[in-house]
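>> received
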Amino acid sequence: MKLRVPRRIKLWERLWASSILIYTFVATYFVWKTMSKYGVNWFIFFLLDAVTSWSYGISTARIVVALIEKNRTALSKWVWVAGISFIAPQLYIIAVARRVPHNDYVTIAIIIGALALFALFSLGSELRKARSLRHR
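>> returned
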């Protein structure tokens, strides 16, 4: 069953995805300042994060729609897209960084965990808002 996404929701998806791009600039700044000394190319990180943040934004919005419509097939697809989009830039850092102190890896893991929790709470919040709008 194909996910039906009204034009109004597509507009909000695009606005949400665009706002997530702001995070990309902040994250790139921190990667440049902290991880470039360990061999992480901030520009490659920026490109990867820019592409994946757009797909992450669209997929999280589609997750909300799929949950509301109880479309398990679409939900499964968009959860995978969101998960891969979320973790890809962090995996790039882990893959290319050289001689990173153990404490920095712990810090990266804590940041990834905190961002994942924030994403889950944000998704729950958006789902509650969408359900309340639908029941009006």
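>> The mean pLDDT is 83.
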